[in-house]
Amino acid sequence: MTLWTAAEAAEATGGQTVGDWTVTGVSIDTRTLQTGDLFVALKAARDGHDFVAQALEAGAGAALVSYRPENVAEDAPLLIVHDVLTALEDLGRAARARFAGKVLAITGSVGKTTTKEMGRIAFGAQMRVHAAEASYNNHWGVPLTLARMPREADLAIIEIGMNHPGEIAPLAKMARPHAAIITTVAPAHLAAFASVAEIAQEKAAIFEGLEPDGRAILPADLEVTPILRSAAPGKMTGFGCSEDADLRLTEVTLHDECTVVQLEEAGVPLVFRIGAVGRHLASNAASIIAAASALGADTDVAAQALAGWHAPQGRGSRERIVLDEVEDAALDLIDDAFNANPASVAAGLERLAAARPGPGGRRVVILGDMLELGPREAELHADLAALPAVAALDVVHTIGPRMRHLHDALAPEIRGEWFPETDDALPQLRRMLRVGDVVLVKGSKSARTSRVVDAIRDLRHRTRRAVP
């Protein structure tokens, strides 16, 4: 189905078209480009113009460029603009202007992508949903998600992130949501902000983009909740455990493979199950339920659909690693290595504390550095030792110079090994782990903790070929 015609794209961007083309999607990466996509030649680590010829050969319907590369034919289908990123933003605004459905925007220090994916499942059971891929939540991710928005969708879910002050408001105004969720506010990106209160002010800027009569959805239990409430322009729903929450979490029960949640709104209870483990997931789910009425969705249908949501890879997914098929020897891996800050580590450790190891197994965590925490990073790492969930763990291994502060603060009986770098830990994993263990791996993306996950997966039993 046509997403953009040459004439529509030219009108949206003020660009000049070469050829009369149509496209069915929008791509910024030749590795994932689909036939019929508009290839957007962004300048990032590499200049996208270097890949225009490759994109067209791979089946791109056209390319959005600021000039025609020398290796591209003069009659190749192009949209030539002054600046590619600005043109992508223009496409996003034009897509939003023609969109007849509802828009949900999500931000927060932790849980943006999780909540977005919950929304995809919860609302997808009753309407046509378009949602951002991966964590496309920055200055190019938001306009790209909007530019890809199908005309026939009923709901678009837009994830909005930030690293520095002033980033959220322009993206929220571009998305113009009918409901906007702040999942939580926590000490993340403190290298760019002086305090959690400043982070709250930046997160609250998402409400500046709300459509008239739009709904602000925010956590009711935080120290910075008054900052969030004061920024909400009109309709507001607070979710959380406090008595004054509009949507109150009255009970959360963690099981080995799921979480059972009980909510109450105006005295009416709602009980449902999430197909993954974590108290923080109950809070994310509550925010989605709070958004349902503002988006024209059925609350009960949305809640029951969440039983089909499972944590994606890198964000808390659990998998069985078979070490020896003959002896039925295995361990369980919880892959939460996509990113880390104090709030998300606390949630991950609580999830591990609720897990049941196999016979003879232990609850083991391997933690990599948390980054972008500013001058308090040593204190914030050491403070993890005092989290209640730590008392239920058997071994805490740590990696990185910042995690050395946690290593030193741990009680001797659970203090595992410390490694200066991720690569130092990899050869030791088989010795550090045993059959029956449940192993959580978590750390900031730039700390390369995901390499530990890959190495644990490589411990899987490999069937030997018979020699002929």
TrEMBL record:
Residues 330-444 form the Mur ligase C-terminal domain. One of its GO terms (biological process) is cell wall organization. GO terms for molecular function: ATP binding; UDP-N-acetylmuramoyl-tripeptide-D-alanyl-D-alanine ligase activity; UDP-N-acetylmuramoylalanyl-D-glutamyl-2,6-diaminopimelate-D-alanyl-D-alanine ligase activity. One of its GO terms (cellular component) is cytoplasm. SUPFAM superfamilies: MurD-like peptide ligases, catalytic domain (SSF53623), MurD-like peptide ligases, peptide-binding domain (SSF53244), MurE/MurF N-terminal domain (SSF63418). It catalyses: D-alanyl-D-alanine + UDP-N-acetyl-alpha-D-muramoyl-L-alanyl-gamma-D-glutamyl-meso-2,6-diaminopimelate + ATP = UDP-N-acetyl-alpha-D-muramoyl-L-alanyl-gamma-D-glutamyl-meso-2,6-diaminopimeloyl-D-alanyl-D-alanine + ADP + phosphate + H(+). It comes from the Bacteria. Keywords: ATP-binding, Cell cycle, Cell division, Cell shape, Cell wall biogenesis/degradation, Cytoplasm, Ligase, Nucleotide-binding, Peptidoglycan synthesis. Residues 106-292 form the Mur ligase central domain. Residues 23-91 form the Mur ligase N-terminal catalytic domain. Pathway: Cell wall biogenesis; peptidoglycan biosynthesis. It is found in: Cytoplasm. It holds the Pfam family Mur_ligase_M. It is an enzyme of class 6 (ligase). Belongs to the MurCDEF family. MurF subfamily. Involved in cell wall formation. Catalyzes the final step in the synthesis of UDP-N-acetylmuramoyl-pentapeptide, the precursor of murein. This is UDP-N-acetylmuramoyl-tripeptide--D-alanyl-D-alanine ligase. It comes from Palleronia caenipelagi.
